[in-house]
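Lecture notes, unit on binding sites. The following record was shown on slide 14. It pairs a sequence with zinc ion.
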Amino acid sequence: MADKDEIQTSTDVERAESVREVLGARAIIALVPGSISLVLGVLMAFLYPGLLQGLGWVLLVLGLGAIGYGIYALRQTREVKAVNIICPYCQAENHFTVHPRNDIRCVDCSRNIPIRDGQVLQVYQVQCGYCQHLNYYSDKSSSLVCENCDSVIPIATDEEAAGAQVLAQFARREDNDPYDLVLLTAGPKPEKMIECLQHMLALNRNQVKQIIAETPVTLMTGIPRKKAELLSGDIRQAGGRAEINLTETSEQGTS
Ligand SMILES: [Zn+2]
Ligand SMILES: [Zn+2]
């Protein structure tokens, strides 16, 4: 999401994975030379005492120190605690060492995850009015550019309401309005249509035949658009034609 919020995206939180990586690398850097130093030190100090004995002791102590540090770093790696932030767009888990105070970028979908007061803000879906691509915005969004076609999707921000609202004429929010499914024609394959509607409406043969005889007929009312689209697809499959209309109610809550 090419969002203006990007500018504020914080870099002060560290990904738990990267912290673990750094600690792990440090442990290896300490452990490998530490072990070599220890072995050399033991050889020189105990097995081949002589001129190099003093140096052997130095190596031995250095080696022990490095190994000690390496083990410490390894233990820390395990103790890196992860704050788990679930991406509101793709549900991917993002791990951080501390609770992020500002927006973060999702590891999986690269979208900006809006954070306010340590909480992931709710995101809303909005369909691009130009290409129908689904975009997301949150209460923090002040502008929105379509991920797909780069068109500007206008959002009116209202500081008082602390909310962003998309101007309905350009883009429409994933609607929760109720819809009607209307059967226009049963099509050339009445048997298939009867079967389809029996299944869809859980009615018996005669009831379904009755319904088909009355086309155009409203099959269902007050169902979500998604469901209406799905069912109208089933009807098309069975050779018929259906229409989806906004359910007419007294109160049209457009928020
Ligand atoms: Zn994501
Ligand atoms: Zn678009």
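Take-home: The pocket of zinc ion (ligand 1) is lined by residues 87, 89-90, 92, 106, 108-109, 111 (CB under 6 Å).
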